[in-house]
Design brief:
The longest helix is centred in the first third of the chain and has 19 residues, at about 20-40. The strands form 3 sheets. The protein has a 5-stranded antiparallel beta sheet. A 4-stranded parallel beta sheet has the order 2-1-3-4, with helices on one face. β1, α1 (about 20-40) and β2 (about 45-50) form a beta-alpha-beta unit. It contains 9 helices and 13 strands. It has helices spanning about 20-40, 75-85, 95-100, 105-110, 130-135, 165-175, 185-190, 235-245, 285-295, and strands at about 5-10, 45-50, 60-65, 90, 120, 140-145, 155-160, 180-185, 195-200, 200-210, 225-230, 250-260, 265-270. With about 300 residues, it is an alpha+beta fold. Helix content is about 30%, strand content about 25%.
Length: about 300
């Protein structure tokens, strides 16, 4: 073994020129966990998950960090996952990653007592329309997105006036993938969404994310903003409770939450694969993750 841990990124972030502010943040985030692991005495490198020249048997563990193209290349990524876990150990566990890639996990968590927005899954080749779905559930506004995706890929805010505008893309993608339809939660526009980082089951820090004016997506890809936030005890309890419902305890998690239309905390996403963890807002969290990895995996 040449390396104790390989930090996983995607090919766009290996050696980009020039480096935008976005890419600089990627490097900073990956750099913070790399240095934290090295301070624990580990030999660490950083590679794109799809690097055809890298021998994955040369690393004991592979840590998912910024593999942010996997949902655009999902079939290829799944094939790589099957192969790589025969050669090295993945962090988080491959079973956790496989479960978390598909948003059906929201149903699993809801059955275990985690509050989510009213949600319907529309499976491939279902004979229905957006208008029929809105009428069936009595929703005036909803959010439509794929069950497998990220960074708001094919995510649309629907209402009675624009349903027909999205019907073509809905029917087209429904031929090959599952859609997720959720009742729109108005607090996203007014209060935003909150991401709570949980390392080894314990809360470390949080950010407040808000959409830009006139939009509903909080991702910075669409002009959303993020700033450090002091989570309330209620939010921390909700985040830690959500993570505790995972079958295999994850080493790291990001719990995205909001207030639903009834004024209760609810889960938007539980990110266990490659979430941005905003170590740059709290570098100590990177140290905590490094300590967790050394302890759990007996380095």
């Amino acid at each position: 073994m040449k390396f104790d841990i390989t930090i996983l990124t995607d090919h766009r972030y290996v050696a980009p020129t020039p480096k935008s502010n976005y890419v600089q943040n990627v490097f900073k985030e990956d750099g913070l966990i790399k240095k934290a692991l090295e301070r624990e005495g580990l030999i660490v490198n950083r590679k794109s998950w799809d690097d055809p020249t890298y021998d994955w048997e040369n690393t004991r563990y592979a840590l998912f960090r910024t593999t942010w193209d996997y949902f655009h290349r999902f079939d290829e990524f799944q094939q790589w996952l099957k192969q790589v876990q025969q050669k090295t150990t993945l962090i988080n566990a491959p079973e956790t990653i496989a479960w978390n890639m598909d948003k059906h996990y929201l149903v699993d968590l809801n059955k275990k007592g985690v509050n989510i927005a009213p949600t319907a899954f529309v499976e491939p080749e279902t004979k229905t329309s957006l208008a029929e779905l809105h009428e069936r559930f009595g929703w005036k506004k909803s959010v439509l997105k794929p069950a497998i995706g990220g960074t708001a890929r094919h995510t649309y805010l629907l209402n009675s006036e624009n349903l027909q505008n999205h019907e073509k893309v809905f029917k087209s993608l429904l031929l090959k993938e599952t859609w997720l339809l959720q009742a729109f939660q108005e607090s996203i526009l007014t209060r935003g969404e909150y991401s709570l980082m949980v390392i080894a089951g314990k809360y470390t820090h949080a950010v407040e994310k808000k959409p830009k004016k006139g939009d509903f997506r909080v991702q910075d890809d669409f002009g959303g903003s993020a700033r450090p936030y002091h989570a309330t005890p209620e939010m921390i309890r909700f985040a830690e409770m959500t993570v505790s419902k995972c079958t295999i305890p994850p080493d790291y998690a990001r719990v995205d939450i909001f207030w639903d239309n009834d004024g209760h905390l609810a889960l938007a996403e539980l990110e266990l694969i490659e979430p941005e963890l905003w170590f740059r807002f709290n570098p100590e969290a990177a140290n905590l993750l490094a300590t967790q990895i050394v302890s759990r995996y007996n380095f």
